[in-house]
Amino acid sequence: MTSTIVRRVQNVPRPSTPTLAFSKVGVCILPIAQIAIGAVYLKECPRQPYIPIYLIVVGVFGLALGILSCLPCAQKSENSENNPLSCICTAWNSLSSLFLFCWFIAGNVWIYSIYQPNYTKNETDLETYCNKTLYLFAFWSTTLIYILLGLFLVIGCCVLCCMMMCGVADADDDV
């Protein structure tokens, strides 16, 4: 039964081209917004000046990963030999994903450590100020990652449990 589930997961049908294009555009929207917000409010958070830099860097790397995933360099050739470009793409994706993970952890520290900064700009005390748009965008875009991660985990577990409980029959099973 377990091998049946594994075979079904390995042989998932490819989504249609419009679906892939729509998902790629959807994935690129958040990084573009992160770059824009980080650049516009670059000097607007003296309380934690790394927050706009965090947004710009995570946006650039997220956008680069999204765009580069559209390239066919990661596909294997028909004779199952690894092509050198595929090895380079795999190395790039692995290193940039590792960097993004570490950068995400650093961003969490910078964002959540100053939770509820002073949103009003005061001439006498600029050190506690952080632009409200910048901070809330960084806060909620980071929190959104946790929400989506939790949803994927819960939905994945539910689907797996349903597949195991229903005992999905395979065409070559004796039913």
TrEMBL record:
Transmembrane segments: 21-41, 53-74, 95-115, 135-162
Keywords: Membrane, Transmembrane, Transmembrane helix
InterPro entries: TMEM272
Transmembrane as UniProt keyword: yes
Protein name according to UniProt: Si:dkey-19b23.12
Provenance organism: Kryptolebias marmoratus (Mangrove killifish)
